[in-house]
Specification:
Blueprint lengths: L1 H11 L10 E2 L5 E2 L8 E2 H17 L4 H4 L5 H12 L7 E3 L3 H14 L6 E5 L4 H13 L5 E5 L4 H4 L4 E7 L11 H10 L3 E5 L18 E4 L14 E4 L1 H4 L38 H10 L8 H21 L7 E2 L10 E5 L3 H10 L2 E2 L1 E3 L3 E5 L7 H17 L5 H4 L6
Parallel strand pairs: 2-13, 5-6, 5-7, 7-8, 8-9
Antiparallel strand pairs: 1-3, 4-10, 9-10, 11-12, 12-15, 14-15
The protein binds pyridoxal-5'-phosphate (PLP).
Pyridoxal-5'-phosphate (PLP) binds next to helix 5 and helix 6.
């Protein structure tokens, strides 16, 4: 009970406490998976209704101009840019991380024609690795992919590397790279860097311009709460836009799409990354979702994330769960907004916890992963979640056959 009292005190002092009211959350559910699919802002629900009913239903094709659908990718891109430290005109919203990686890796390799290596980490999210593999195979295996140790990147860099492709926050452990130091070390060797911000954008301050980042990609359905399958984003630093050429040369990335010119001529700047027609419904919902960040700064969000993670660990200790669940996340100064715990029954524990109304997730082979989304999580939620975890662990309900069976999406 003391825990719940203390949580109440922490909630009273929380400067972000009123943000939770901007979200629609199911009753009696505690959501610790905002790092996989962010919760739904009320504004998103309202926009979904109006974009379908009014803009599409009534406006029909006139809405491309009337509601400026055509300008959505740049407008939403700039709003995302503001959250990742990018000045206007360098971010555009489009496609998925996977597709955007293909574009940006291709363009970066073209800018380093004398070099043949893409470097990344083994622990990177698989799609990042797969896309690099696919590109290399398309290039006739003239290039190669090399893996470097995530703990020791700067020392592994050498002058055969054209592009360093890194995810800032490790999706399993939460290990966070120092963007500024690594970018500098790479530039010292003439290497271009592509940052994947999947677990960074909306979770803490990112300073792409200040770090002299070259390129970045990220998704919007995690901490940016854009909704399932929401479009991703891509950043091309202004200084590279002149030399940047990406191969998915669709009409929306043409200098003047409605001239219907038989030859491709890329649009100026980051807009060249648009390929086909944007998914207007999803992008509109994302646009509305970004309203929850208005009037908040990411330093404040980070402060709360750190406090929530610390509080979670304290609660685990109080319930004496900290020895049974082995934390495999790094210290907080090199960590994103998540905690990972190893347990041989991690999958079943996660399922049993979900049955108690606490949604976290599992990452193969044995990780129970907990995401901390400060805009809609309270300290009381954390205390309650750990109390329910205590019940699951004490009664070993996770041993029940229903919780042992793997579903398609884990
Ligand atoms: C979530 C995630 C992705 C997802 O890629 P999509 O193509 O948008 O599905 C990619 N990379 C990382 C590091 C991720 O965490």
């Amino acid at each position: 009970m003391q825990i719940k009292q203390h949580a109440l005190t922490l909630d009273k002092q929380d400067p972000l406490g009123d943000k939770k009211a901007l979200f629609v959350l199911p009753e009696n559910v505690i959501y610790l998976d905002g790092n996989s699919l962010g919760a739904m802002p009320l504004a998103a629900q309202q926009r979904a209704e109006s974009v379908v009913r009014e803009q599409w239903g009534n406006g029909l094709i006139t809405s491309w101009n009337q509601h400026n659908w055509i300008g959505l990718p740049q407008r939403v891109g700039d709003r995302i840019g503001a959250l990742v430290g990018a000045a206007q005109g360098q971010v555009v919203c489009c496609d998925s991380i996977s597709v955007n990686l293909f574009k940006v890796l291709s363009a970066a390799l073209k800018m380093r024609p004398e070099r043949q290596v893409i470097a990344t980490t083994k622990d990177n999210f698989p799609t990042d690795i797969y896309m690099a593999e696919g590109l290399i195979s398309l290039l006739g295996d003239s290039h190669e992919l090399t893996f470097i140790d995530e703990q020791n990147i700067a020392d592994a860099l050498h002058e055969d590397i054209a592009v360093l492709m890194l995810t800032q926050v490790n999706f399993r452990t939460g290990y966070r790279q120092n963007m500024e130091a690594i970018t500098r070390a790479a530039h010292d060797k003439g290497i271009l860097v592509v940052w994947d911000l999947a677990h960074s954008a909306g979770a803490f301050e990112v300073a792409l311009d200040a770090c002299q980042a070259d390129f970045a990609v990220g998704c919007t359905y995690k901490y940016l709460n854009g909704g399932p399958g929401a479009p991703a984003f891509i950043y091309v630093a202004s200084r590279h836009q002149q030399d940047y050429v990406q191969p998915l040369s669709g009409w929306m990335g043409h200098a003047s799409p409605f001239a219907f010119d038989p030859h491709y001529q890329p649009a100026d700047g980051v807009s060249q990354n648009l390929s086909g027609t944007p998914g207007v419904v999803g992008m509109s919902i994302l646009d509305a979702s970004l309203d929850v960040f208005e009037g908040t700064d990411l330093a404040e969000i980070r402060n709360k994330s750190v406090a929530l993670m610390d509080w979670f660990s304290q609660c685990l200790k109080t319930y004496e769960l900290d020895t049974e669940l082995e934390c495999c996340s790094p210290p907080v100064d090199v960590r994103g907004s998540q905690l990972a715990f190893r347990h041989p029954e991690a999958y079943a524990i996660c399922q049993a916890w979900i049955a108690e109304g606490v949604i976290a997730d599992f990452r193969a082979p044995d990780i129970l992963r907990i995401g901390f989304a400060p805009l809609y999580l309270s300290f009381g939620d954390i205390a309650e979640a750990v109390s329910r975890l205590h019940d699951v662990m004490q009664n070993k309900t996770y041993l029940q056959p229903t919780f042992q069976q793997k579903q398609t999406v884990t």
